[in-house]
């Protein structure tokens, strides 16, 4: 099988880590029977400066018509609002209907307090519909935004969370060491305040997860503020957490804080038959150009993309090579307290593939 | 000066901790020249079951016309939406225009990683305006909620954050041990997505904090997801954090997770010349009736209420007595790993007053 992968480095260290993602895909053992073709695509702040748009239509149309998946690096965004600029990854999620953002957060199994969870974030609605208005009143300006929650989007994201919980269970059953027993999905919401919107998310998710195929999956709920509290206090208790867009955004970063560095944490933006891997760190202008960015978030994002393209064996190879580099702990980038360059980390991991 | 204080125990352990709050106020040294009168008021789930409303009008009108401040315990809320029930504390905040929720989170100074921050949460608007609608579509139900941000509310909450930063600085200058140098206010928002609503919060807060009286206060910003990340990774870096209602709700619980137990964390709901102290724990039905609830969150909430009624000397006495109990660590409630009863903790702290 040949997979065509779009490469969208973006800005800053995005340009240093995406090539690493490409190399690990190319280095996968031939026995897997996978071939890759790469398409270079533009997006981000530099693109905006050149072309006046942060996400050129060409990038979207090539991804749509010509790619099986993609790797997205990171983009710099202006610190104050700039007319015409809006986040290309947010736009990509919407235009390709990548309705789920999936973020696994995992320590090595030998960590003193091992954690192994996945945040499954709805990616298309909630406050991210960006329908805002502002009016002047005698008391000054008043701005409003719409938070939209639909049964359709809530149902499919909950079903995806259920599928991910089952897949994780299967991988554990195949002998992968784990801290979890029965698969668990935790539904996060704030229906004690937002009884209609978050209430709809909650009841729809409950319903979706009550389907017979999720018979083995335990289902729980947490109010979002309490979820953040528990995330810090008992992270080991969570397996799969599903949440509307904004809470998912916040929980994803909170979960990332539980492991050593953002440089370790991958994500995938997933739709029907399409996935974009995306490291969860930003463009990091402070270290750009020094060749010291941690490539691991991108390598894991490439693996995660493969999982959602049904290439689980290939994904497993990459995960194992990364884990082995981390378990040994000899060649680590500066964010992990080491002094290895991006290139050295990549070579060490390729060697273990 | 005589202060009239409303006592609203609510449900569950609220009934066990609010009496402790009363006792510490009564035990304050006569030299402070403070007298207290108490008014017993109803709110909560039991009240709802008795009267069909969770917050009787009488409670609101007595607080308005007859009290200087109040202590609110905790209320149980139904696990599924119950017609006619809505959270009394949310309603109280709105009806008394208690526009700020203030939550100090502090470890003892001798902690290995000392933390000393205050979350200042806007308390009247954002998604908490609870304007929701639901419609049926061919694809199923779609619900919407309004997120409202006004210049007026953003400005006054930012100004309060600035005042709190200055007051903390004054207390430090008076010799209280501290981990902070220059006062710092961190504005939290998500204006990279919500350019109008959160954009208005951000620019208004910036403007309010640019007033000459805040000349000594450093001002920073954090996007809310990154704020949660930093809260976990570098909590010692933060002094005063100001946020719109919902982010403030989430950050308050996140910050509370940084200290040993919710049983330690106080809050105050503050308006013009009125403050309600409120422990940040819930009604805890699992331990209710056992006499083992930690009273410290309530004692500190009583002190915080006094601060906002301009009785800082009285507040300082309570804080010191609580800190001394915790520093010694001999009489601790079960949530802190001890085995002391509520009554024993209260007596120990009264003794140190
Ligand atoms: C950059 C920003 C718009 C984005 C989001 O909020 O979705 C980011 O935080 C993310 O999680 O990818
Ligand atoms: C109970 C709930 C409605 C409330 C809120 O969200 O404000 C609580 O979380 C709080 O912080 O006091």
Overview of this protein structure:
2 copies of one chain form a homodimer. The radius of gyration of chain A is 20 Å and the shape is globular. Chain A folds into 2 domains: 197 residues, Isopropylmalate Dehydrogenase (3-Layer(aba) Sandwich); 151 residues, Isopropylmalate Dehydrogenase (3-Layer(aba) Sandwich), CATH 3.40.718.10. Chain A is built from 11 helices and 12 strands. In chain A, strand 6 and strand 7 form a beta hairpin. Chain A has a 10-stranded mixed sheet with strand order 2-1-3-12-11-4-5-10-8-9, with helices on both faces. A two-stranded antiparallel sheet of chain A has the order 6-7. The relative contact order of chain A is 0.16. The two termini of chain A are 20 Å apart. The first copy, chain A, has 353 residues and is an alpha/beta fold. The complex binds 3-isopropylmalic acid (2 copies). One 3-isopropylmalic acid (IPM) sits at the interface of chains A and B.
Essential attributes:
2 domains, binds 3-isopropylmalic acid, 12 strands, metal-binding (chains A, B), lysine biosynthesis (chains A, B), 22% strand, 353 residues, Isopropylmalate Dehydrogenase, homodimer, ten-stranded mixed β-sheet, isocitrate dehydrogenase (NAD+) activity (chains A, B), IsoCit/isopropylmalate_DH_CS (chains A, B), alpha/beta, IsoPropMal-DH-like_dom (chains A, B)
List the helices and strands and how they pair.
The structure is a homodimer of 353-residue chains.
Chain A: E1 2-10, H1 14-26, E2 35-40, H2 45-51, H3 57-66, E3 69-74, H4 88-95, E4 100-106, E5 116-122, E6 132-137, E7 140-150, H5 151-173, E8 184-189, H6 197-209, E9 218-223, H7 224-233, E10 240-243, H8 245-256, E11 268-271, E12 274-277, H9 296-308, H10 312-328, H11 342-352
Parallel strand pairs in A: 1-2, 1-3, 3-12, 5-10, 8-9, 8-10
Antiparallel strand pairs in A: 4-5, 4-11, 6-7, 11-12
Helix pairs in contact in A: 1-9, 1-11, 5-6, 7-8, 9-10, 10-11
